[in-house]
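Many introductory courses stop at the sequence. We go one step further.
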Amino acid sequence: MPLLRYFGFAGSALVLLLFGLSWFVPQPVAEPIRSGIDRSVIRISSVEKLPERVDIDSSLPTIVPPPNVMDFAERWPVAKPHQTLTGRL
């Protein structure tokens, strides 16, 4: 029950604090003070240009078939076991 008593005390203290602050702080003005500014003439420009447009051709196949493994293995240089530790081919 001490936990419920803590939440009751802390919650009521926070509610009283909010009521006190709302009484102390003035209410905001409904209309801005400088509402007569003409914002239609503000123009923003930049020296930097956008990157070039990238066109993605979706008519090409997205999955490229893998090369024949045997063709790749025949072209790959094979080192002898004693050469792999020394780094020489």
